Fold this protein.
Amino acid sequence: MTENPTRQPSAGQTRRRGAVLEEAILRAAVDELTESGFAGLTMDRVAARAGTNKNAIYRRWPNRLALGIAAYRQLATTVQPPDTGDLRSDVLELLRGANRHWSSPLGAILRELLSAAGGTSELLAQLQEQSSDAAAAPWLTVLGRAVARGEASPEALHPRVATVAVVLLRNEFVVRGAPTAPDDVLVEIVDEVYLPLVRRRDPAPN
């Protein structure tokens, strides 16, 4: 793979290839995404910032949405699960953290990408890997501790069950278009949906 044949390396500079060039493109895309959002992300601007040409980008990412998703995934961080000793407090803290993220500039980029992905299942799956894998981990950790304390049913330890609260919160942003979710909505999600779903139930009397 080569860069623009008309672009000559400066003195002492070698032509970048492979992983080195890919890293430079991703770094440039991350910078463009954080500065201008997905709406302002263009292949031309990324190419100029990375010091390469659009062909080098298209060989790796077929369109700007795929590039935007790859750049966003570089920005995504791992959430550390709270450990207050109480399931309700832990869940509220996790949900409030998610609400802050979705309300932040980075969350706005994520909402733009989800909207742009629309029905493109493959790209949507790449975005939602954070929800189904890495983002499920803190919820499963919190639930695991709750199960050990007798606050939740062992059957709740399933990624789909564990992430119900954050999925409902995501709907507030993606479906309803809310810029942020009021705290009483978070409390309602926890008290009316999440805790009844995961709470240990006593066996039915004979």
